[in-house]
Amino acid sequence: MYYVYYSKDHIANSIIALSTQYSVYIPLFALLFYIDNRHRYTDPITGKRDFKVIKRDIKKLFTAFSISEIAFSFSNLSFTYEFLQFGALPYQASMLGSLSASIISFVLINFVITKVVKLFRT
């Protein structure tokens, strides 16, 4: 994180780290989710896309990710800030903050997807 050499503000450094993570994470997830689940959105008989199913799943994903990402963002900012306050180097604080927040986010998103929005019903 070169940004720390230009600013010693721990909050600004935490926000820049979070923004960088999102710029990689969200497009990569969208691409991989589409590749893995594209068979769910085509009618096996006609071969056409079922936009009703696509729309329903996008709403469920948006709900689940909104909850999870809010928790991730706040916990990542908090953890990164605290690690910086404890004297960790910026890249260490960013990595440890992201790892800690990811654990919280993964547990929360799995709970929300399976129990709350029921995205993958069998």
- Helix content range of the residues, please? over 70%
Query: Which percent range describes the beta-strand content?
Result: under 5%
Q: Which sheet architecture does the biggest sheet show?
A: none
Number of alpha- plus pi-helical segments: 3
Tell me the structural class. mainly alpha
Distance between the termini: 44 Å
Enumerate the spans where pLDDT stays under 50 for 5 or more consecutive residues: none
H/E series, N to C?
A: HHH
What is the number of beta strands? Answer: 0
Note the overall shape. elongated
Rg on CA atoms, Å: 18 Å
Mean pLDDT: 84
Features:
about 120 residues; mainly alpha; about 0% strand; elongated
Describe this structure in words.
The chain is elongated. The chain has helices at about 10-35, 50-85, 90-115. By secondary structure, it is an all-alpha fold. Helices cover about 75% and strands about 0% of the residues. It has a domain at about 50-120. The mean pLDDT is about 85.
